[in-house]
Please model this.
Amino acid sequence: MSTSPDATSLIAALADEVPPDRFVTDPDIIDRYQHDEAEWAPYAGAVAVLRPRTAREVQALVRHCRRHGIPIVPRGAGTGLSGGANAVAGCVIVSLERMTAVKQIDRLERTAVVEPGVVNDDLRAQCATEGLWYPPDPASSPWSTIGGNVATNAGGICCVKYGVTRDYVLGVEVVTGTGELVRLGRQTAKGVAGYDLAGLMVGSEGTLGIITEITVKLRPLQEPHRTIAGYFDSLVDAGRAIRAVAEVGLTPSALELVDKRCLQAVDEWKHMGISAEANVVLLGRIDTPGTVGDDEADRMLQCFTDGGATWAAASTDQAEADALFAARRLAYPAMERLGPVLTEDVCVPKRHVPEMLSRIESIGQRHDVMIANLAHAGDGNLHPLLIAPADDDAARIRAQAAFDDIITAALELGGTVTGEHGVGLLKMPGLRQELSPAVIDMHRSVKAALDPDGILNPGKVF
Ligand SMILES: Cc1cc2nc3c(=O)[nH]c(=O)nc-3n(C[C@H](O)[C@H](O)[C@H](O)COP(=O)(O)OP(=O)(O)OC[C@H]3O[C@@H](n4cnc5c(N)ncnc54)[C@H](O)[C@@H]3O)c2cc1C
Model:
């Protein structure tokens, strides 16, 4: 494959600082890096992909691109669901996939220092060998990177009890849009020296800096959990059970919703023998040890029953319980096999979960759109998955209208357009609905301070 003149001059100009073999210029390979998993989000042609090994290589690229006005799109594993890592015309994609060192796991401080390309599950596995646990567990944990998780402030399954990525980031090393290589945040348990600029990087979606190292907090290994499953005839019944769990003051270590469409899609794909007898399944977990945990599990079971479960039970079979959660994790890729999925990520106050689920159903019917439902239900973080055949323009228009209506409904109920996936491209109109013009202007001011020439992930977020 020939290399474009732009890529040739870029590689030559940086040859003293960045070994040429760090660059990918084959258009067929570049194409694989140009988009994330948000199948509806547009992307354009990149000039090259840089796969750096060091922060200094990233810095050299940013300085060059700043001088020449070349846009840069940072990328982790490309599992994002909002188009945040999608290429923009003429950009260089910086894929952090080769910066995979776990530099330190400190048992005394309960911290880890990692490069951004470390895959979430790999970090969790390494921590486990030290008796430690990195809690944030997006369902993409077998593939997504800690850098991508930090840049999107990823949530996950156990976040209902243990918090999201933001709650675990102590410090970051970043290359800002000015080409500065800086350390932000701290390594200590406490610290208030200056503004929380490390926090600013969490969820910044590659628009303020390229993260080249992260220091995270760890916890002792999680206690074993009990799993409680409930079957429901309707989304709204399941929603009532979810609200009841919050009302009685329980803090489950997971509370996930998965509907029949998703379970069937997983089973058709993986043949896991998961029965989809119910329209909606709730999967709860309690990891409080001892008799207190037993009592909490009983109370969760009662909440499911009170919410209208047609069947509910605590699982006595760990393998069966694990299979249900594995199916939950596979639900999104299973649905992708049925057609391009437009993924919502709204989050509403827990009291409004039944109402929001009811509105999602009505919106699907009104626009004649197939909607499957997945949710980190205990957080009120709902993922209606809108599916329209790729070659059916009318269905796509209806799905987009339903997507917009779901966002409006979530905002009416005091929610947000994105609980964990980030704004990227798909939620930009929603962000403008959610934030006032004055707050959008504050975003612009922050961006101008750290990336004055607007070269980092331009055209994303706001
Ligand atoms: C099957 C499946 C399940 C999922 N489940 C969840 C879930 O439970 N919870 C959840 O929160 N998300 C989930 N996601 C979405 C996605 O996995 C997360 O957003 C994840 O954090 C993205 O990580 P990544 O490494 O793939 O980043 P990418 O998709 O490559 O990038 C995401 C964003 O971060 C930026 N970025 C990446 N690396 C860096 C860096 N080093 N410096 C600066 N910016 C950077 C990119 O520019 C982009 O804006 C799921 C996705 C899939 C496909």
Notes: The CA atoms of residues 125 and 133 lie 8 Å apart.
